[in-house]
Write a structure and sequence with these properties.
525 residues; four-stranded antiparallel sheet; 48% helix; elongated; 14% strand; alpha/beta; Isoleucyl-tRNA Synthetase, Domain 1; seven-stranded parallel sheet; single chain
């Protein structure tokens, strides 16, 4: 893949970010870092959604006057940016829907659709949920309750502009069926196809300024602003306005499952009407739950990612979010679970392997990694190298295969990494280098330590997208150079794509001075 345009949704700024927002950011950051490491030209877009009635209400509740909504959102946007900085999120673009360039793109988009004959004025008579910014029919909002958030909805009757979504329903069904990876995971695709079995209603895409003036003005009627969801989705184009020729169409939109309909139904039909190519894949992950319910700002059952990072460290939080749940399914958050995974995987396994190996390098070789001369006739060398080849030799190939697939098997990648680490710890016990040392068989000790160092190098490469600060510490302690842990150089050397490691293949440089420091992950009691 020569380029990767990957996005998070833009986050609604009526309150500060929680762990659910952080989850999406970490997923996309991991993928962006991995693809950059194999030489792909990456553009990672994120941002904030700043219009709509919820923002108006939140601004007024915070003591701002009508017309001062921008001052209100400015403060919260900075909070989002601070949290992403704390979590070591490296994005390439940050789009705000209050930016002038975004408004220009939205208005151009609407003009394209109107010129196509896909926008008309009519009367809306139905239910509206302000917290969800969503219209519902009488059938959908039974007893005046929003089917999504379960809160009361408001009855609205007013003139508005509508988008002829129904015109494109058959086309969208055909597109989804013809492109199996358009919506992932597959069970989410089936959800969308199930939704499309019912006739699509045309979408109300405006709000009269008399009711809600906070939004992007319609280019063809100054008395209306654009429906906030319609406005927000166009960020994926306005965010790369200067790079459209290079990066569009989007390769991967990563979203939460509760906004799947907007991305898998509204968005492709909008693009079709306006004359744009379709994104390649829309991937919907699950929710984080707490106490059996979805985390929600309105319910107050949220976990603060900044507080967690301060308490446990940034990389352990990033690791936990991916390791604790298969991507696409729901996860249950608890600090007890975070601590258990931290102690078992990071302190007991990864940290222990690095510490034990470097301790032996210091003890047996004065802190300098041993040189290994290949000797095919040496039975001891052949025996030791077979472990490297058969037990963990395919680690980076497994990482490459799972990271580049559309299934986004990130948890499976971490499972493979931890599997290699566990085997390496077991290898120390079984090979018992201290016994060879007592017998003065330093050739065997060299071979064992060289195997362990090779594994640690591969692990450093493999975990770098997930835990970049940890990988940097490992690189420093192992005395490695940047080129020694470059995923791309191994790719050029045909390490991946199913090619097994040969028995004489070693990549850890001998004669390297190690710098054993403090344990990477002190155990939490």
């Amino acid at each position: 893949m020569k380029k990767l345009y990957i996005t998070t949704p833009i986050y609604y700024v009526n309150a500060n970010p929680h762990i659910g927002h952080a989850y999406t950011q970490v997923i996309v950051d991991i993928l962006a870092r991995f693809y950059r490491s194999i030489g792909t030209d990456v553009f990672f877009l994120t941002g904030t959604d700043e219009h709509g009635e919820k923002i108006e209400e939140a601004a007024l509740a915070a003591g701002f006057k009508r017309g001062e909504e921008k001052k209100f959102v400015d403060g919260i946007v900075n909070n989002f940016k601070k949290v992403w900085e704390v979590l070591n999120i490296e994005y390439d673009g940050f789009i705000r829907t209050t930016n002038d360039e975004h408004k220009e793109v939205v208005q151009d988009f609407l003009n394209r659709m109107k010129a196509k004959g896909d926008i008309y004025i009519g009367e809306y008579d139905g239910w509206f949920c302000t917290p969800c910014e969503t219209f519902w029919t009488d059938t959908q909002a039974e007893d005046g309750i929003c089917p999504d958030c379960k809160r009361p909805v408001e009855r609205i009757k007013e003139k508005n502009y509508f988008f002829k979504m129904s015109k494109y329903q058959t086309w969208l069904i055909d597109h989804i069926n013809s492109n199996p990876e358009f919506i992932m995971p597959e069970f989410r695709k089936n959800e969308v196809l199930g939704f499309l079995k019912e006739n699509l209603n045309d979408l109300c895409i405006s709000r009269p300024k008399t009711r809600s003036p906070w939004g992007v003005e319609l280019p063809f009627d100054k008395d209306y602003v654009v429906y906030v969801w319609f406005d927000a989705l166009i960020n994926y184009i306005s965010g790369i306005k200067e790079h459209m020729d290079k990066f569009w169409p989007a390769d991967l939109h990563v979203i939460a499952k509760d906004i799947l309909r907007h991305h898998a139904v509204y968005w492709p039909i909008m693009l079709k009407s306006a004359g744009y190519e379709m994104p390649n894949t829309i991937f919907a992950h699950g929710w984080w739950k707490m106490g059996g319910e979805k985390m929600s700002k309105s319910k107050g059952n949220i976990a603060d990612p900044t507080e967690l990072a301060e308490k446990y460290g940034v990389d352990p939080v990033r690791y936990f979010l991916i390791k604790a749940v298969t991507l696409g399914l729901d996860g249950t958050f608890s600090e007890d679970s975070l601590v258990t995974i931290y102690n078992n995987d990071l302190a007991n396994d990864l940290g222990n392997l690095l510490n034990r190996t470097l301790t032996m390098v210091e003890k047996y070789f004065g802190g300098v990694t041993p040189e290994i001369l290949q000797d095919p006739g040496c039975d001891e060398q052949k025996k030791r190298s077979e472990f490297l080849k058969d037990e963990v030799g395919d680690l980076l190939e497994v990482v490459y295969r799972n990271m580049t697939g559309k299934k986004l098997q990130l948890k499976q990648v971490l499972d493979a990494i931890m599997g290699a680490i566990n085997k390496a710890n077991k290898y120390i016990e079984e090979s018992a280098p201290w016994k060879y040392s007592k017998e003065n068989n330093m050739k065997a000790v060299k071979l064992i330590i060289a195997d362990l160092l090779d594994i640690l190098r591969d692990v450093t490469i493999a975990i770098n997208p997930f835990m970049p600060a940890t990988a940097a510490k490992m690189k420093e302690q192992l005395g490695l150079k940047e080129e020694d842990i470059n995923f791309g150089s191994d790719l050029d050397g045909n390490m991946y794509r199913g090619k097994a490691r040969s028995s004489d293949w070693r990549r850890f440089p001998g004669g390297t001075k190690v710098k054993k420091g403090e344990p990477l992950f002190p155990r939490i009691n």
